[in-house]
Design goal:
alpha+beta, 13 helices, 25% strand, 32% helix, ten-stranded mixed sheet, 405 residues
Length: 405
Amino acid sequence: MITIRPFAAIRPKNELAKEVSIPPYDVLSDEASRKLGENPKSLIHITRSEVYFPAGEDPYTGKVYEKAKTVLEEFLAEGILFQDEEALYIYTEVYHNMSQRGIVGIIDTVDSKEGRIKIHELTLKEKQKDRTNHFYHLRCQDEPVLLFHKKEEELENWMKEYVQEKDPEFDFTDEAGVRHILHKINGKEDIEKVQNYYKEFDAVYIGDGHHRTASSLDVCERLQVEEGIDPGLLAVIFPEEELNILGYHRVIKDLNNLTREEFLEALKESFLIEKIDKAYEPKEKGVFVLLFKDEVYKMTLKEEPQGEKVADLLDASILQEKVLAPILDIIDIRTDQRIEFYGGYNAIDEIEEKIDQGFTLGILLHPVTPKDIIAVADRKEVMPPKSTWFEPKLRSGLFLYPYDI
């Protein structure tokens, strides 16, 4: 069973929700962060408080983390943020004619310790350490993680009815065109109803936010030793079929000294190659789309993929094993400077722009599904790097979880 708890959220005043909230910290460049910092009410002053210091300074120092704590206290004193009553919430995002609706609450760390919060990727120690220090000094988790669970039709129907009957706390559309709607669940019976639904789940799965999850759990462990408290994990939990996962595509700087003709010929050992008129995101597994400056090709796997692990059968793994490593000599996509990654609704435009700037090849992949993630996580495997792109992202600054309660 999964234990979910209400919490006394720190939130922006409803009329300031759009102005305060920002995209998640890990999708923002330093330049974008500093631009957001021009707004004195932006949460960027807390999540990326290095904006107060000169560009190029180490963002992982104690003074940066302490500044975040100071700004949080200032935002509360000035009334930009306030501490709400204990509650759960229903958070809805609407984008490109789709919506995703989930529950906001605190998940107990025991669910992680006993293996019920399931992961599908590894974390980078430096990034994990940064958010651990940030949450610890802030004494607050200022960004939620995205979790999901297997289909539960009764819960989904209940959420739908609830938001139809209640007025939202806020309802605004951000600069990217994503609509954000928050409903509070503060009635005792309604909270218990949600908790009872979650007791029926064997597990929840991390969709987006492995580093934030690991960091939050690190802080919980540390505070349990030092102070005897175990705050838990701030999360938004969606039903699996509500999630919107897009392809996470590749763009390659060069063809490893091959001509285009030689490269296409090498691909024919494993793939059928067909010239097409227009780029598109593949709609089925085993199909890839290749973008050159002046040509587009469809690349289809000839044979069913083989592998002992579920992760070996995913398109990102197939591409790595049959194309990137053996033909293009790109062995580690996390460190190789000849490859970049683009996801989202505008990815094809961004890749085409990158090719105009001098890169040679874009490769479009079919998106993974929630069931792919579940299959990998249930077997304690790891997804290939850069496999998932969730859109829309969770907006940061709409609800923060203070540890001092």
